[in-house]
Design goal:
Blueprint lengths: L1 H12 L20 H26 L10 H72 L12 H7 L8 H68 L2
């Protein structure tokens, strides 16, 4: 019977029987969780009660066909009651552990779901980031129309505007465009002035042509009017 008790002890706790194992200050090389330690302590107390009953029965063998004395029956009943009490305690703690395990599994599943959602969101953000990188690269390589504007060379422009920050390409380009616009506006004003002057000269030339044409007509009329006088002079002096 003692050998059977030793085997049972080894199967439950990994320890060989001496009958009793102390639960106060109990520690386990693997299990560190306080709730599981409490379950192990209850299991050890139950084991000690069972081994104690087995040892008591070994010490008080029952002859065949006989009955235990009354005090032995009382002791056995007391030990049975203690075993049932420890068993109920162990079942309660085991139930609490299983409930906690179930709750932990649910929380773990929820946390895993949250992680999966965040991982999916991260993948979406990475995908969007790659798209934005492509868009940025396309914008950098885009052939803007202002790159083809016939502006004066930047070195010449900086000689005209040395106060500008050459590091800021946007401000520099806008200043060059504004300068080009001002220069073209000035040239356009000059062109308009020259065009006006040209039109005035053309108008003056046309007026002179008209005056000369009128003079020719008047001269022809004068010559025609002078013909009789000339003929008279010719007759008088022949």
């Amino acid at each position: 019977m003692a050998n059977d008790s030793n085997t049972a002890a080894e199967e439950i706790t990994g320890y060989s029987h001496p009958v009793s194992i102390e639960t106060e200050g109990y520690s386990h090389p693997i299990i560190k969780d306080p709730q599981l330690i409490s379950v192990m302590e209850s299991a050890i107390r139950l084991q000690n009660e069972v081994f104690g009953l087995l040892d008591f029965l070994d010490a008080h063998p029952l002859p065949q066909g006989a009955q235990h004395p009354e005090d032995t029956k009382v002791e056995i009943s007391y030990r049975h009651t203690a075993i049932h009490s420890h068993l109920a305690e162990l079942r309660g703690k085991h139930r609490d552990v299983m409930l906690r395990v179930r709750r932990d599994k649910e929380e773990t599943a929820k946390a895993r779901l949250d992680v999966d959602v965040m991982r999916l969101e991260l993948q979406n953000l990475i995908y969007e980031q790659e798209i934005l990188k492509g868009e940025i690269e396309a914008c950098k390589n885009y052939e803007h129309i202002y790159d083809k504007l016939p502006l004066i060379p930047i070195e010449q422009f900086l000689q005209l505007r040395p106060e500008l920050d050459v590091e800021d390409e946007k401000i520099l380009m806008m200043a060059r465009i504004d300068h080009e616009y001002a220069e073209r506006q000035k040239l356009e004003d000059e062109r308009q002035a020259l065009l006006k002057q040209k039109m005035e000269l053309i108008a003056e030339n046309n007026k002179r042509k008209e005056d000369l044409a009128n003079l020719d007509k008047d001269l022809e009329k004068f010559i025609e009017a002078a013909q009789p006088i000339m003929q008279t002079f010719e007759k008088e002096y022949k």
